Automatic annotation (TrEMBL):
Recorded coiled-coil stretches: none
Compartments (UniProt record): Cell inner membrane
GO molecular function: lactose binding; lactose:proton symporter activity
SUPFAM superfamilies for the chain: MFS general substrate transporter
Protein name, per record: MFS transporter
Entry annotated with the keyword Cell membrane: yes
GO CC annotation: plasma membrane
Amino acid sequence: MKLLKIDLRKRNYIAVSAVSFFYLFAWSAAMSFFVIWLGQVMGIGSTQTGILYSANSFMALVMQPLLGFVSDKIGLKKNLLLGILLILLPIGPFFIYVYGPLLKSAFWLGAIVGGLYLGFVFNAGYGAIDSFMDKISRKYGFEYGRCRMFGSFGWAAATFLAGRIINIDPNITFWLASFASLLAMIALATTKINLSTEEKEKADSVKLKDTFGLVKNKKFIFLLIFMIGVGSIYDVYDQQFGTYFVRQFSSAAAGNKWFGDLGSIQTFFEAIFLAVAPVICKKLGAKRTLLLAGTIMSIRIVGSSFQWGPLWIGAMKFIHSFEKPLFLVAQFKYISLNFDLRLSSSIYLGCLFTSSAMSIILSPLFGKFYASIGFSKTYVIIGILACVFTLLSSKLLTGDKRALNYGNKFAEGEQVTA
């Protein structure tokens, strides 16, 4: 029986790690050079780019609460994730034959269509996939961070390739995204999840009133405040960073290549640090780890405002490889420590919902700032805002009341058959 448990644990660990790798490979291949593709290939400026990011966020805003409830309602059944990956499959033809032409001929229609599609498969779908990984890691006794790290490897690999391919033909990267989504579907199909009667009953017991009831939970509201001031603020910073970085070079082609290399190196180290982050989170606690991530983010965003050459600016972006793993791991730990685990997907996607809502407001606003006062001054504003919310959250977030260890054994009573 013990051997069967070990085999099934390894099987699911490998399978969900592969899903994470190929899904984030697809996302990176399609979107890591999105802002550069818009500017250099489509001829779209900063303000319109902000509008497109807002459109993507608006669709996520609509879908994230629904996906959170559905994820909790079906538990560890794979139907939802297979549906997301199936819809992601035609991402390549969508960019080449639908989205690109629409942005040139009918920008607002293109923004709506792109927002519907990209907002669902990435901005909203990502939350459902990440939440599934967290649930399966808790059930089968491995750390979420140590399977999510393969997603960062996938992102790094795609960014490295895209940085070279975009100067040849950006359409190739879109086809790679479609191929990666197919491989992600195959990987998901290889998972084997045995649900106990108790697990099925817990999932069935989730009601809409439970999800809506979260808005009355102070801990949840305080977590959302942190997400508003840290999670969504970072998204706004990152959206048009590629344009800022490429401008530091004498030619766009050279900047594109180095931006691709920077992204791949950053996410490679991000993947490595995802294996270490659970140890740090265990030592510091979930709350302190979240605050540490917010502090690092605030400092490096302000640091990015100093135009001391591409090496310095790249170094500021590179620090994200240490900050993001802390943020990701601590967020799931914090949810596990402070909330009803039946609603873990609703809580996580509720946090993403809040970030999307703020992104709708902030993306076009800061897009105008980038165009009017420049990137440097805008980054100072963003960094200060993140710092203020981090300090506020030090008073609002709940400190750990108990230890959380679910990365080294199966849940009690787990029955496994091969």
